[in-house]
Amino acid sequence: MDTVIKNLEMDACLKVLGDNYIGRLAFIKSGQPYIIPITYFHDREEDYILSYSSEGVKIEAMRAYDAVAFQVDEVDSIQNWRSVLIHGKFEELEGSTAKLVLHKFAQGVQETISKTGRTSPKFIGDFSSRLSQRKMPIVYRINISEISGKYRNDHQQP
């Protein structure tokens, strides 16, 4: 049997994004690519990837060069997987907008965890407390310019 990697349809790409909350963010720092895992929420209505962070290398790099990539994978086996790649632009949010988005992010991640039947990670409880702190985390979104996906399923019936 020939191994065939095929393109995911857009609906399948959006399902992968909506069914997960951990992805990998790629950014450029000092001319070098970096890739790190982040917790995210895909806001399907607004078509953004939402996340937050503390100050650090990642935020400094994205402030300097806002073009980023983001990838989410579902891997059942080497013969059965789905992968979605996003290209977009980093946008830092501030003030009341940042607080609203952080709240939406926390609710979205919790709903994603609930609908998939996974155990809620301990950090979820930290989100609401962060909303009332003086020192808010840096809240950002990735404005999506392109979504593409691939999959492999050697066991699929023709």
Ordered list of secondary-structure elements with their pairings:
Layout lengths: L4 E3 L2 H9 L3 E8 L2 E8 L1 E3 L4 E6 L3 H8 L2 E11 L2 E14 L1 H22 L7 H9 L5 E16 L5
Antiparallel strand pairs: 1-8, 2-3, 2-6, 4-5, 5-8, 6-7, 7-8
Helix pairs in contact: 3-4
Keywords:
8 strands; globular; 158 residues; single chain; 30% helix; alpha+beta
Taking all Cα atoms into account, the compactness measure Rg is 17 Å
Characterize the largest beta sheet: strand count, sense, and whether it forms a barrel.
8 strands, antiparallel
Helix content class: 25-40%
Listing every helix as H and every strand as E from the N terminus to the C terminus, the arrangement reads: EHEEEEHEEHHE
Specify the structural class: alpha+beta
Oligomer: single chain
Mean pLDDT: 88
End-to-end gap: 12 Å
Q: Could you give the count of β-strands?
A: 8
β-strand amount? 35-45%
Shape field: globular
The low-pLDDT segments are none
Number of helices: 4
